[in-house]
Predict the 3D structure of the following.
Amino acid sequence: MAAKRQHRQTDDDLVSDTGSERLCVVTRAALEPDALLRFALAPDSNLVPDLDRRLPGRGVWVTCDRRLLEKAIATRAFGRGFKRDVRVPDGLPDLIDTMLLRRIIANLSLANKAGLAIAGFQQVDAALEKGQVAVVLHGHDAAADGRGKLDRKFKAIQQDRGQKAPVSDILSISEMSLAMGRPSVVHAALTPGGLTDRFLREAERIQRYRACPPIVSQDFHEPTQAEG
């Protein structure tokens, strides 16, 4: 029988004795930091989101799930975690969603500046043919036919290579256009690189927060009768 996992108190938060895990203040489950959101406390007792996990002082952690954050607020879990009165900002769940989304837009912008981004249906299709694509991106308001054609091609290529075919439609067309500094970016792709890996991590985080399927396991858009 596996030994019961033990936990100890530190000057930051509760951690596993066996590694880097932290305890969710709501569920009391021990999770890796990437699966959690960290919150710090300002001197004026205001709760401060710490998405980079860098702010000094004690932190309280909540599973990266909007529903659990809402429960933490409703049950005053932050006050228990910090052992003092805490002022929670109005609209905190919406604020976290906005912060996570801005991080994805900023990361896509950096990837574009680093030469890792490809924009346009034909350009993405050509990059797929050359085996250069690590992630396919669509505006979530893009038409299904173009999305489906690229997704199916990407999936087939990656299956032949024994690799995953991550597809992200988190951003809107306008948000993708803003990030890439060009008008009407409906379809895009990222080639392999460190910033692409970071984009995937941030994309997975907001998907978890929104309780959406992971981008590597989303269903691909199947052709409709009109698409043939």
